[in-house]
Amino acid sequence: MSRTRLSTYTAPPAEVARTLDALRAHYEVPTDFPPEALAEAESAASAWAQDGPARLLADGARDARDLELVTIDPPGSMDLDQAVLLERLPTHADHADQAGAAAGEVGNAPEPAATYRVHYAIASLATFVTPGGALDAELRRRGETIYAPDAATPLHPEVLSHGAASLLEDAERPACLWTIDLDERGEVVSARVERALVRSRARLTYAQVQAAIDGQGALSQEAPADLPELLAEIGRLRLEREAACGGISMTTPEQVVEVTEAAEATEAAQATEPASPTEDAGDTDPTESAGPAGYRLAYRVPVPAEQYNAQISLLTGMCAARIMVDSGVGILRTLPPARPEDYARLRRVAAALGIDWPAAQPYPELVRSLDHAVPAHAAFMEQAMSLFRGSGYLAFGVGGVGVPAEDEASDAEEAVHSAIAARYAHVTAPLRRLVDRYGEEVCIAACAQAPVPQWVLQALPDLPDVMEQTGKRARAIGRGALTALEALVLRGHEGEVFDGVITSERDGRGELVLVEPAVVTEIRAGKNASDGGLPVGERVRVRLLSVDPATGIRFQLLRNRS
Q: Is the dihedral of CA 455, 461, 464, 467 positive or negative?
């Protein structure tokens, strides 16, 4: 959560905490870990600290501490799932040596020589969680980490997620180590994963890496000097491959919650409401504050480094899906294709917004040509994000569910993630998402030509339902938290006029996106027929009529009025 500039649209922390606590209670979000589960986590962490690395290597894991892996995450992150090292392979290297002969590699026929090698270390949670134990049961109850502006409800106890299992800098950690070779076009030549002992060299942020890509800064000496160049190079190649397959990666502004510094909040309050001469200055001393002074909403566009890093994760998930399908058992992340009527609706939206969409132009190509800074384009992209719906998980090879076929008809149904335009599996965030631990273990077993562990096979049939239910809860908390923050930052500003854009309309109700503060809410068309419909895709001015965290926010569209 980033620190922000001065703003009068700030929600007080005490009210935020009360509102979010009520939200968590309503959805029965787990709080403390049961004593038995916490004891198991602490015992596993202690065992790793005592002699874990030696035991891991004795069990046949690869010693990969020589790899110059680094993590790339938001500032302050402690639950570090992934560490990466990128290499440009010598052009004269023998392809057989590059690809290796490990079972489970993607593709069996001779392939072009590899140009790049991606080393991707993923936290090995199977090293710490005892199947069938109290911690295992609690993880199934939680499903995933739930993020809220004031606090995260972690999937794993912090002794693991912020400690023994996290790929922290300069710490020896167990990992599921992927080795993926790519050709000069960014196509996969080979992929495999194995248990390994790793040590991350540096903890980097997206901003640091982006600055290095832009030539405006250097990374720490511990990080490979060519990391920024290779990340951008491989990331762009993978984006090109995604586009060629019909996949879509939209870089649109996202609503984020930022923390206001204590000194900034005091200054903002003094600028709008002078303090009383008798006010005790000690009550507002920023040095006395133990927590945030407030929260505000902002829009943030991911920097290219985030896109490139995401492509490494997507690449790994696609390789994992292929390995699982080839081995005959696993679990895929799926998203059904958009329906023809949804595309027809989106074409009507484009026409209404004045966006030229030739009949022969593929939808992904159109999306990549848009500029989110143009109001009409932003409105279209907001609608485009709802084109694909119904994501889920497909467990196969167990419980009577067959292996997805390779034919086109199967791909059009349940086995493909349509936004990626490929088969895909969640395997890169096991600290924050339950299903990833199981996917990793399937792939490790397949690459080692070993049986999939029985505890994995037993859990797979129920995992789609577990992830669906826990995912619904996490999404409800995320939506509810933003809705509450929107009301709290606007309270006290009734009667004021704001600039915004209306991004959609249906049955007289539209979506209103304010410029400042970063609020996305509903607005209704006027009751009089003479008022006309809502001007979708146009900049508008609106007046705030009322705010209530319980009942919502009401705005009035100003037509040719100030």
A: negative
pLDDT at 512 over 60: yes
Q: How far apart are CA 557 and CA 533, in angstroms?
A: 11
Give the whole-angstrom CA distance, residue 488 versus residue 546: 12
pLDDT in tens, 93-141: 454 454 444 434 554 555 568 899 999 999 999 999 999 999 999 999 9
Which H or E element spans position 205? strand 202-205
- The DSSP secondary-structure symbol of 134 reads H
Question: In terms of residue numbers, what domain contains 496?
Answer: 492-558
Is 113:183 a contact under the CB 8 Å cutoff?
yes
Q: How far apart are CA 224 and CA 86, in angstroms?
A: 9
Amino acid letter, residue 72: I
- Among 409, 442, 463, residue at a domain's last position: 463
* Residue 302 domain flag: yes
pTM: 0.85
Question: What pLDDT is recorded for position 298?
Answer: 86
**Do residues 513 and 500 lie in contact, with contact meaning Cβ atoms separated by under 8 Å?**
yes
SS3 labels along 489-517:
HHCCCCCCEEEEEEEEEECCEEEEEECCC
Q: How many domains does the chain have?
A: 2
